[in-house]
Amino acid sequence: MKRNYFTYLLICLLLTSCNFTAKSKKTQKNTLFVGIDVSGSFAQSKSFEKGLEFLSYYIYGHLQGLGDLTRPTDLYVGGIGGNEREDPQAFFPIHDFDGLSPDKIKTKLVKEFSSQRDNLTDFNTFFLRIKTMVKQKNLVLSPISIVMLTDGVPEIAKGKTKKAIKQAYSKINLSHLEYLARNVSIRILYASPKVGNNWRNYVPTSRIKVWTIEPETMNGWKDQLARNGKTGLWKWTRDNVDLRIRSRGI
User: Fold this and answer.
1) CATH numeric code, 29-240
2) Model confidence, pTM
3) Is the pLDDT of residue 4 over 60?
């Protein structure tokens, strides 16, 4: 009888340990920043409206931890750009989105970000704001994922010569983010292949991983939702947006 009791106790302890380990992995601390380009050049494009709809599902899926999407312990959504350079935008915290349906998240995103039409693209102020938020909230060292709804094009001097384009990208400053965590990734939605190459070739960084997704690829998320429902959408998201970036540009 005693032997059976101890066997039962050992099984319970093992099951409890496995369950605790699974929960620990699921709730591993990580931070998700979502940036929305409110510059005139992008906010008036078709990609902007489509992108807000995608982000509503993206944020919802992550906050619910659906389809093996990682639930962030911290989420901040803010604008990229301003009426003038170095004009910081507010970040909306996780509490503003947790518990909302995709439709309600989209309504909030449209309300907060679609009315700004004449702003400049200012990636540097956005990245600096992330650094400030990470340090203020003591989020240092935990993995940081930055997802940006943007065409990825910085403000370029008139003429758009090859030299001017290279200079514009080389002035994008990621140094604020380099050592905030061991794992910092930037995912740019709706960037053309040429823009993606410019980010990889001209934006200076040594540790941060950059992944760009073309508009043609991004347009596929809605087809997946229509054909395979949300299960198909979560898989598409894992394979095309949240995939592991092994090294810069891959």
Assistant:
1) 3.40.50
2) 0.85
3) no
Give the pLDDT of residue 120.
75
Question: Could you give the count of Cα atoms lying within 13 Å of 77 in the half-sphere of its Cβ?
Answer: 25
Which one, of 158, 248, 148, lies nearest residue 203 by Cα? 248
Q: For the chain, how far is it from start to end, CA to CA, in angstroms?
A: 59
Burial 210-244 (b: 16+ CB within 10 A, else e): bbbbbbeebeebeebbeeeebebbbebbbebbbee
Cα atoms in the 13 Å half-sphere on the side-chain side of 195: 18
* Segment 141-190, tens digit of pLDDT: 889 999 999 999 998 866 678 899 999 999 999 999 998 998 999 999 99
The structural domains of the chain, with segments of one domain joined by +, span 29-240
Within 137-192, residue ranges assigned H as helices are: 162-170
Q: Rounded to an integer, what distance in angstroms lies between the CA atom of residue 92 and that of residue 96?
A: 7
Contact 35, 152 (CB under 8 A): no
Q: Each residue of 6-28: pLDDT tens digit? A: 555 455 545 554 444 444 445 58
Residue 233's nearest CA partner among 220, 221, 219 is 221
β strands within 125-231, DSSP E: 144-149, 184-189, 209-213
